[in-house]
Amino acid sequence: MAHMPDLTFERAAMARGFALIAGVDEVGRGPLAGPVAAAAVILDPDNLPLGVADSKALSAKRRDALCDEIFARALGVSVALVEAAEIDRINIRQAAHAAMRRALAGLALRADYALIDGSDLPADLGCAGETIVKGDAKSLSIAAASIVAKVTRDRLMARMHLRFPAYGFDRHAGYGTKAHLAAIAAHGPCPLHRMSFAPLKRL
């Protein structure tokens, strides 16, 4: 059994005097279409959602159920999107950082410490913070944020499929699958496509 994420990092921050700890994660750096999404989650240590794990290790059905559970139990949940046009303008790394900043800023309760998945700490977070490599497998708050970000983005891309049915966004969420690349070749890009990404740049 793989090690499940826990509150070790959150408790360490609390021991240093921080009260409201937000886990922050983003999803959607790699796709050729759609936004990058970030979520910030402040868990209630006395009312934890059960079964939270790294979103990549969960089935879509389990993620959906957990996402609703996280919204119901957490002290604060916020999601922010940065759309394709802005990604093209500022680049994907800056867009991911902007999404994380906006997710933190959108929390109803202001976090005073942020645990960020990865190794790249965004500037101007509005609070103290640290990065945790593979944080979604280690920190319960980051794992919760990874689930909320992924479910939100997947639901959005399923809705976008209704607007742009030719591309199959409900199946691949904008990632560069063979079917997606074939659809771009047949129909050209749509407004959701990231024109700065290599396969689209050539067009």
Explain what you see:
- By secondary structure, this protein is of the alpha/beta class.
- It has one domain (8-201): Nucleotidyltransferase, domain 5 (2-Layer Sandwich), CATH 3.30.420.
- It has eight helices and five strands, in the order H-E-E-H-E-H-H-E-E-H-H-H-H.
- Strand 1 (21-27) and strand 2 form a beta hairpin.
- 45% of the residues are buried.
- The mean pLDDT is 96.
Topology (elements, then pairings):
Layout: H1 8-15, E1 21-27, E2 36-42, H2 60-73, E3 76-82, H3 84-90, H4 92-105, E4 113-117, E5 128-132, H5 140-163, H6 169-172, H7 178-187, H8 198-201
Parallel strand pairs: 1-4, 4-5
Antiparallel strand pairs: 1-2, 2-3
Helix pairs in contact: 2-5, 3-4
Model regions low in confidence, pLDDT < 50 over at least 5 residues: none
Q: Just give the CATH class.
A: Alpha Beta
Shape: globular
Output the radius of gyration. Answer: 17 Å
At the third CATH level, what is the topology name? Nucleotidyltransferase, domain 5
Structure annotation, total helices: 8
Mean pLDDT: 96
Helix content: 40-55%
Multimeric status of the protein: single chain
State the separation between the terminal residues, measured CA to CA. Answer: 46 Å
Structurally, the number of domains stands at: 1
In what range is the share of β-strand residues? Answer: 15-25%
Structural class: alpha/beta
Total beta-strand segments:
5
Instruction: Please identify, by name, the CATH architecture.
Output: 2-Layer Sandwich
Strand order of the largest sheet: 3-2-1-4-5
CATH superfamily: Ribonuclease H-like superfamily/Ribonuclease H
- Largest sheet: number of strands, sense, barrel closure: 5 strands, mixed
Order of helices and strands: HEEHEHHEEHHHH
